Amino acid sequence: MEKLDARIRNHDREIEKMCNFHHQGFVDAITELLKVRADAEKLMGQVTDTNRRLQDAGREVTAQTEEVIRCRIQQRNMATTVEKLQLCIPGKPRKVKVSEGSFCRYYAALKTMEQLENIYIPRVSQYRFCQIMAETLPKLREEIKEISMSDLKDFLESIRKHSDKIGETAMRQAQQHRTFISAVQKQASLGCAKPLNHLILKKKKNKLDTMNVFVFPVQVLTAQDLVDFSPVYRCLHIYTVLGDRETFENYYRKQRKKQARLVLQPQSNMHETVEGYRKYFNQIVGFFVVEDHILHATQGLVTRAFTDELWNMALSKIIAVLRTHSSYCNDPDLVLELKNLIVIFADTLQGYGFSVNRLFDLLFEIRDQYNETLLKKWALVFREIFEEDNYSPIPVETEEEYKSVISRFPFHDAEIEKQPFPKKLPMSQSVPQIYIQVKEFIYASLKFSESLHRSSTEIDDMLRKSTNLLLTRTLSGCLQNLIKKPHIGLTELVQIIINTTHLEQACKYLEDFITNITNVSPETVHTTRLYGLSTFKDARHAAEGEIYTKLNQKIDEFIQLADYEWNIGESDGRASGYLMDLINFLRSTFQVFTHLPGKVAQTACMSACKHLATSLMQMLLDTELKQISMGAIQQFNLDVIQCELFASSEPVPGFQGDTLQLAFIDLRQLLDLFMVWDWSTYLADYGQPTSKYLRVNPSTALALLEKMKDTSKKNNIFSQFRKNDRDKQKLIETVVKQLRSLVNGMSQHS
Fold it and tell me: I need a labelling partner for 553 at 20 to 30 A (CA). Which of 45, 76, 273, 645 fits?
């Protein structure tokens, strides 16, 4: 008992702990319930008010509906009374009445014949006229079957003609429904509580549309208004009564399959206009609206399995047709209209219970094609912008012009803003135009993403991917082609580099622009980034490379003007004219480079000096040049001195020390060696890191010395050496031999 009491006390403590633990939650729950009760009472008041207003709005419709019901009942009673009265009129024999009834009321005639055959004729079967009547009844039944079948064929022809009208009506209703829902959603998003006065919500159940349809207050034709379905009803009843319903069902389904194949055959020029697509869709919708009506109005004539089979067959054909014809279309506006038609077409048939997922999958294929047509269109736009650009900074005379430019392009520069008017913006006119056109492309791409039943994240991803294609393929391709055009000079290339720099800086604003449209945060994990930075960097690098190439080409053009007298006895003490013109050209060119990033200008300057030094060295070592006099060496030395003076004048700021002069160090050491004739020092210090002529290659020195040696045979400086100083001639021979041994040693070592 003591243990039991102890256990009871333990359980009591646990129960007390549990109650204490859940007590606050219980109190919070009660508090929340009290709050909810007030909200529930408020909601109940709103529901009651809404119900009252709905009842008030529908009171007139209810009254009219009841009036229509009363009129229908009266009409039916009158028809029944007339029919019964006609049966009571005495006169013609029963056979004549049956014949008359078979023409207008086949079903009633069959019932009458059945009564004659089963009730009346057996009573008077002994009379001969009854036997004749009994023999005639089967023939009358066959005639009724033939007449009803003829009516059915007329019915099939009628719905074939009216399919496009029925489809047009159904698609218009679906479009109005979409418009109404969009307006309601827009009004709800604006927080507007007033009802839409320009829209009327009409809930109507009819033979055309089995779902609730919101329509505008206009007269809408239904399937029964356009087509009389009574022939198919009569024919079905007649064949059912005659016990041949299966034959009728098979015939009807076979004929409808044939009609479906005809409806699905498009016109060859359907892709040329949107009306061709619209007519094609209207016929298909009309066909399946009729089938849906027959499905719900008759029992078993067509089944859901049959309509689904028809729809699957039609859907495969529709997708193949649209995929083929849309591929012919190069107009993005037409592709966009086609997309809108497909969406309405899909929504219409989805309302009748048909699966349309494959159509929306097709829309994604068409979206890629739409983007391709947009890219082609914008390629022409970009090309036109580049052709019309003057590739000079934008001049702004007044503050209004300045505000006009920055309203079209996000440009901010504190130094330029402080400058007085008139002033110039660094980029050319094409930059704001390109920026505006990229935004226009984003808008155009967004139009296709509407109504696709996709989330904001998916739409954001679509926009970013299409914009990336525009930047990395279309705009990048246009920039690359522009840079490669022969008429684009150095000034234009400099401006292109400046333009791409500003466009690269504007990419973040394009990111924000897309974010504002889709309301998808750029920090989302799966958000695609714009590749504009790499696009403009690649274009800028291509332009920089083209600048280096064109500078070198221009230097080559000046070098080709060089006209040295290689056998001259003595230099006139002045630098060559072509070289001075080349240096003046380089000075003026590098002044334009002041707007470029520092490294680009420095690289261009260094590349030009290296190319100039290489060209001069190649000129000296040209294999076609056989003799060089000392006077020519002196003249060449004067030209190289001018190049070194140009390099030391710092044509582009930012070089450290004599970095730029090092481009000519090979030439300088080679010329110093020949001018001073310091072969003993060269040969003694060769291979030493501290050698005065470290950059002079033995093969280069040998080649130039051979050119000077060969002139001894043609009365040049060496002829005097041989006459006046044969010891020095022997020294030259010795130097040549030693240089050759150095060259041979280098080749063996390598």
Answer: 645
